[in-house]
Amino acid sequence: MTGSPSPSGAGPRPVSVRSDFEEGPGQGEPFRWPLGPFLLGWALSTAAALLVRWGGQSLLSDPCQGHTVLALLMPLLLGPGGLGLAASQWNNRPRAMFGLGMVMASFVPTLLLSAQDIGQLRNLGCAGGYLIVSEPGGKQLSEITLAAGESRELEGRIGGYQRASHPGTFLLQGQSMSSDLVVDLPKTAVHAGELFPVRIRAKESAVSNRFDWGVQAKYQPTPGESGNAAKIETSGKVAVTIILDRSGK
Questions:
Q1: Is 29 a residue whose pLDDT tops 60?
Q2: Which residue ranges traverse the bilayer (predicted)?
Q3: pTM above 0.85?
Q4: I need a labelling partner for 92 at 20 to 30 A (CA). Which of 77, 177, 217, 233 fits?
Q5: Which residues pair with 196 in a beta bridge?
Q6: Where are the alpha helices (DSSP H) in 89-216?
Q7: Can you tell me the distance from the alpha carbon of 214 to that of 185, in angstroms, rounded to the nearest whole number?
Q8: Among candidates 154, 127, 122, which has minimal Cα distance to 139?
Q9: C-alpha to C-alpha distance for 214 and 54, rounded to whole angstroms
Q10: Nearest residue to 56 (alpha-carbon basis) of 124, 110, 123
Q11: Through-space distance between the first and last CA atoms of the chain, rounded to whole angstroms
């Protein structure tokens, strides 16, 4: 079978073939994630977190009980919840960005406020106190080295409590794992936050070894304080390495 003759002087018509690699309408546009839903998710989540924080602090009458759960509640809800929403709606850009906004709100400002609230609980003594041993005017120590017959003058401090909320005294007691180490406490009763001297000495007959020593503090409440105050105890521990002389032998 013969097709219709082409017009005189005209060649065969070119056949247009569409390539799969050819860009369709809008395919040349850059890939963008909408910023509006992200900001909306962050703003609504932040507002919800602040509202829950304010409402919880208003309803909780006890200065300690329930506040840790309140501080951690919204970061734990917003973070995983936002990630789950973003993952399940990844093909829906606005909803995915809304979820990512929730995740951002779980960190800033929610987690920062939660860390601040927990720090305040610790200052009140709700999260337990602590006892640190340090160089005079220096940083906290975790280990020291002593030669046999040598002594060191250190200082201690009880933190995590405030004098206003815990007006009683802490009775101090030195503790050592070895009789070769002597822990001397010139002051045996101090208030919260008060610095006190600590002297640690290695006996002349001490053998080269590594031991733990520390200071224990037990709270003595004033009349009228709750009975639970008498159960407050805290301690600080430091490792000491005894050498025979300063050359390390």
A1: no
A2: 35-56, 68-90, 96-115
A3: no
A4: 77
A5: 156
A6: 93-105, 112-124
A7: 11
A8: 154
A9: 41
A10: 110
A11: 109
Reported as a single tens digit per residue, the pLDDT across 37-79 is: 999 999 999 999 999 999 998 888 766 778 888 999 999 999 9
Amino acid at 202: A
pLDDT, tens only, 156-205 = 998 878 788 789 999 999 999 999 999 999 999 999 889 999 999 999 99
Tell me: pLDDT of 10 over 70: no
Centre a 10 Å sphere on the Cβ of residue 207 and count the other Cβ atoms it contains.
11
> Tokens 């600080």 sit at which residue?
236
Q: How many residues does the chain have?
A: 249
Q: Where on the phi/psi map is residue 15: left (φ > 0), alpha (ψ -120 to 50), or beta?
A: beta
Residue 164: helix, strand or coil by DSSP?
A: coil
Q: How far apart are CA 205 and CA 181, in angstroms?
A: 10
The yes-or-no verdict on residue 2 having pLDDT over 60 is: no
Residue 218 pairs in a beta bridge with: 171, 233
Mean pLDDT of the chain: 83
Token look-up 């009458």 returns 61
Please give the structure tokens belonging to residue 27: 């395919």
Residues whose CB is less than 8 angstroms from the CB of residue 73 and which lie 6 or more positions away in sequence, other chains included: 52, 56
Q: Which residues does 95 contact at the CB level (< 8 Å), separation at least 6?
A: 37, 85, 86, 89
Q: Which two tokens stand for residue 190?
A: 């101090």
Spatial distance between the Cα atoms of 204 and 212, rounded to a whole number of angstroms: 18
